Amino acid sequence: MNMIDLGSYQLSIPVGSPPKTITTAQLVKGYDGKYFKSKSDSIVFWSPVTGTKTENAKYSRSELRETWSDGSLHNWVYPDADNYLNAKLEVDQVPSSGKIVIGQIHAYESTEPLLKVEYQYKEDTKTGDIVAKVRNRFDDDESKVYKIVEGVKLNQTFSYVIHLSKGGKLTVSVNDTDWSNRISETWRDKPLYFKAGVYTQDNTGYTSEGGKATFYNLDIDHNKS
């Protein structure tokens, strides 16, 4: 039994056109493949730079998306609950850009997310920054980039928590460092959902190049009380 309960996700993998979706039921049965290796204590996500892309996307992904237990898409509006995504992971490989997205808050039927949590590896220091890329307003064309921590090595385990409160306060914590900001009311009625895994921010290179991460914990909570 995997430590990560896969009963509330579906998986997008970078193969096929459009890219293949692995259903909640398939994940629960014990899906295992090249882009998603399920071990007893972890899940390894792999997304090569040459992988196929979802519509409107420039890059490939091996990424979980929030669902209900019956497999239907789970979207939520933030004023209804305190919304949390908790993850514990290590980044094992980055593409030549050095960047992979490891967690997101996305908006349903929108091409632009509210939040991307991104690992950015730097060759000169051989370590990575973890940044939050935030679109403060729903209609913002560009996201703003906020550095949360630096000095995270490849294969070094760390934790992050995304919390979007009922009042619209967005907090991203990495290990013990918190960053927070209040998002615009323009997001208030938008159906949102969490994603986690590897969204490789590069699309050039060999099939051996890409993003890889090992997740040891992944947990979503919507606390209504």
Please give a structural write-up.
The chain is mostly beta strands and 225 residues long. The chain has one domain (9-223): Jelly Rolls (Sandwich). It has one helix and 15 strands; from the N terminus they run E-E-H-E-E-E-E-E-E-E-E-E-E-E-E-E. It has one helix spanning 24-29, and strands spanning 9-13, 20-22, 36-38, 43-48, 61-66, 82-93, 99-107, 115-122, 127-134, 144-152, 158-164, 169-174, 177-182, 192-200, 210-223. The protein has an eight-stranded antiparallel β-sheet. The radius of gyration is 16 Å and the shape is globular. The chain starts with 8 loop residues before the first strand and ends with a strand.
Number of distinct beta strands: 15
List low-pLDDT spans: none
Separation, N- and C-terminal Cα atoms: 30 Å
CATH hierarchy class name: Mainly Beta
Main β-sheet, in a few words?
Answer: 8 strands, antiparallel
The number of domains: 1
In terms of quaternary structure, the protein is: single chain
Overall SS class: mainly beta
CATH architecture: Sandwich
Instruction: Please work out how many helical segments DSSP would assign.
Output: 1
Major sheet strand order? 2-1-5-14-7-8-9-10
Radius of gyration, in Å, reads 16 Å
Order of helices and strands: EEHEEEEEEEEEEEEE
CATH topology: Jelly Rolls
Task: Give the integer mean of the pLDDT values.
Answer: 96
Percent of residues in beta strands: over 45%
Tertiary shape: globular
Helix percentage: under 10%
